From TrEMBL:
It comes from the Bacteria. It comes from Neorhizobium huautlense. SUPFAM superfamilies: Metallo-dependent hydrolases. Keywords: Hydrolase. Its EC number is 3.1.1.-. This is L-fuconolactonase. Gene3D superfamilies: Metal-dependent hydrolases (3.20.20.140). GO terms for molecular function: hydrolase activity. Belongs to the metallo-dependent hydrolases superfamily. It holds the Pfam family Amidohydro_2. InterPro entries: Amidohydro-rel (IPR006680), Metal_Hydrolase (IPR032466), Metallo-dep_Lactonases (IPR052350).
Length: 274
């Protein structure tokens, strides 16, 4: 099985602005040897490692890890989408076989409509032309802007990370559900079943997630969903194995074994070209 979304970091690298001591158990280094046993217990064989800092140094750090680590299938890195030399930077990284996608951290930016800036839209068109996957990290409030950006970048292959972080702890369903239905209308957009436990909190129960996973299962279907652990961020609310079992349980209500195989491996392998 292929985990489509996990992270590594070394705190002394100094570019993780969001990673502070207030986060407790995850405020330490997390590297491949920390994950290997957890993957084996959960039946995972490969991963896609995703950037957690908004620097090219982070992208380089992850690419170095990928060269040294047998289970890393690819890296979703960071490049400055609002830069005049984006296409030059993109061409440089495209030469690395482990560089399989790009993700800006839209959820943390001051400008909720960042994705609609003219230079950013031009960069998205360059990503689409290169047929490179694009990860979309958002809260529900960003989705109307994402929809407008997708309308202006036909051909962009994208995936919504963490089902766009609905307010699960508060039980809020709309307007997230309507926005996700609109997003799913774009045939080149997929959705990661990931990041849910941290939106529900440490005292979550399985039923807290059901209507959210029911909805994305309905609008995206078996061919455009992929499992991601969001480890080690998930450790704030659940273990690696608990996250994998949660996804299996919820999705088994909708999909047959062959479809689950696509969700837990083949869809991500095809999307990222690994």
């Amino acid at each position: 099985m292929l985990d489509s979304h996990q992270h590594f970091w070394k705190t002394d690298r100094g570019d993780y602005g969001w990673l502070t001591p207030s986060l407790g158990t995850i405020y330490r280094d997390f590297l491949p040897d920390d994950l290997r046993r957890e993957m084996q217990k959960a039946g995972m064989t490969r991963t896609i490692v995703v950037q957690a800092a908004e620097t090219e140094a982070e992208t380089d750090f992850l690419l170095d890890l990928a060269r040294e680590t047998d289970f890393i299938a690819g890296v979703v890195g960071w490049l400055d989408l609002d830069s005049d030399d984006f296409e030059t930077r993109l061409a440089r990284y495209r030469d690395n076989p482990f560089f399989v996608g790009i993700r800006p951290m839209l959820q943390g930016l001051d400008d909720d409509a960042f994705i609609l800036r003219p230079r950013v839209l031009q960069s998205l068109k360059a990503i689409a032309a290169a047929d490179l996957p694009f990860d979309i990290l958002t809260f529900s409030r960003h989705l109307p802007h994402v929809i407008r950006a997708l309308e202006q970048t036909p051909g962009l292959r994208a995936v919504i990370d963490h089902i766009s972080k609905p307010e699960i702890a508060a039980g809020k369903f709309e307007p997230w559900a309507s926005h996700m239905r609109d997003i799913a209308a774009f045939p080149n957009v997929s959705c990661k079943i990931s990041g849910m436990v941290t939106e529900a909190g440490a005292k979550w129960e399985l039923e807290d997630f059901r209507r959210y996973t029911d909805h994305v299962a309905s609008v995206f279907g078996a061919d455009r969903l992929m499992f991601g652990s969001d480890w080690p961020v998930c450790l704030l609310a659940a273990s690696y194995g608990e996250v994998a079992n949660l996804a299996r349980t919820l999705l088994s209500a909708h999909f047959a074994p062959a479809e689950l195989e696509r969700i837990f491996e083949q869809n991500a392998a095809d999307f990222y070209g690994v």
